[in-house]
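Summary of Year 1 activities. Much of the first year was spent building the evaluation harness for sequence design. The harness presents a backbone, in tokenized form, and records the residue chosen at every position. We chose the following record to illustrate the format because it has been used consistently in internal testing since the harness was completed.
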């Protein structure tokens, strides 16, 4: 693969799909200082997936992702290029090895928005942890990291196991206890999101976990957590939390 050439092709495709009006609105919504072309995520994904279609090697995937992530215009990162970098990793996550987690970590640490972090967390980091369970120890360290987006990544990475019916209940419980007192909205929301998705498969566990912590859980977290619980349980937990 001519990585530099493919990066150029991806940028050309994305620029051609751009909508200046959408770009303005997107920058405002995301409070972004990046360059935006104004391309919807599904369209970015389609271009990114095309770039790694066919036979590609692990090293090529990593080099392409790094190349796209580092693209700048007028000294500023390009939003769609970063989204494409993540989509490349997600599409070819099966090629990645345990040591490649550092690439995802670097991307998260170079991010300050859910728009990049969430996809990385669940579909790259989370899937790597499922395949290589020893990487769970990295999440154990991340949940106490000073950088909020790394803590969010640790929590959201557990969604991957939840969605395939293999939830790591021990870590969900431990991470939940570690984060339940957080005041950061994006941490509270992440915890609630994981509990909400888990409740679709194991409502009893979520009900019990929330009930034992109803005096300390935030409104943001509990409203997400009970969304798919039986109406009676949800009402009881919400009423108890408001007292």
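For this record, the design step produced the sequence shown next.
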């Amino acid at each position: 693969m001519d990585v530099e050439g493919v990066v150029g092709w991806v940028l050309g495709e994305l620029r051609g799909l751009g909508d200046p009006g959408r770009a303005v609105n997107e920058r405002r919504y995301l409070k972004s200082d990046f360059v935006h072309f104004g391309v919807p995520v599904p369209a970015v994904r389609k271009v990114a997936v095309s770039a790694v279609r066919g036979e590609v090697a692990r090293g090529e995937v990593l080099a392409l992702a790094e190349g796209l992530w580092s693209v700048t215009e007028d000294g500023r990162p390009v939003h769609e290029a970063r989204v494409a970098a993540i989509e490349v990793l997600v599409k070819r996550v099966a090629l990645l090895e345990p040591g490649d987690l550092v690439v995802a970590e670097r991307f998260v640490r170079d991010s300050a928005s859910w728009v990049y972090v969430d996809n990385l967390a669940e579909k790259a980091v989370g899937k790597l942890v499922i395949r290589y369970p020893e990487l769970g120890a990295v999440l154990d360290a991340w949940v106490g990291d000073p950088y909020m987006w790394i803590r969010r990544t640790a929590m959201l990475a557990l969604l991957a196991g939840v969605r395939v019916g293999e939830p790591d209940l021990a870590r969900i419980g431990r991470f939940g206890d570690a984060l339940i007192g957080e005041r950061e909205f994006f941490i509270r929301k992440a915890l609630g999101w994981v509990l909400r998705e888990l409740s679709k498969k194991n409502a009893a566990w979520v009900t019990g976990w929330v009930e034992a912590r109803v005096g300390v859980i935030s409104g943001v977290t509990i409203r997400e957590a009970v969304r798919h619980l039986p109406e009676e349980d949800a009402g009881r937990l919400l009423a108890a939390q408001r007292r």
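Strands lie at 72-73, 76-77. Quantitative recovery figures across the full test set are reported in Table 2.
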